[in-house]
Amino acid sequence: MRALLPLAFSxxxxxxxxxxxxHSCYKVPVLGCVDRQSxxxxxxxxxxxxxxxxxxxxxxxxxxxxxxxxxxxxxxxxTNHKLGLNYNTTCCSRDNxxxxxxxxxxxxxxxxxxxxxxxxxxxxx
Length: 125
Prior knowledge:
This is UPAR/Ly6 domain-containing protein. By secondary structure, this protein is an alpha+beta fold. The chain has one domain: CD59 (Ribbon). It has two helices and six strands; from the N terminus they run H-E-E-E-E-E-E-H. It has helices at residues 4-18, 106-124, and strands at residues 21-28, 32-40, 47-54, 57-65, 75-80, 85-92. It has a six-stranded antiparallel sheet.
């Protein structure tokens, strides 16, 4: 009986951690998640979400599974000075923890897309 208890706990632990899934997609304003998939988390890795901002305006998000080649490294306010973009990356390790929940400021994103469309039409004339 004592030998069964550790075996039961190890089976339960392996079952509970064997199939942790993460969301995987590029999330853009107005359209939401493009090419939505699910990925299985490898042992010792974490789900990650990278949100990209232009100033304070959200531009897009990248949701995916971390891998041994590209593990999740949590970073805040990482800046690409050439493009003027700010990156925030968060890590988590629960099932579907990097939820593609809506981001704030969709009206600003819609305004940006509309402005780009008007600029494109103006350039065509």
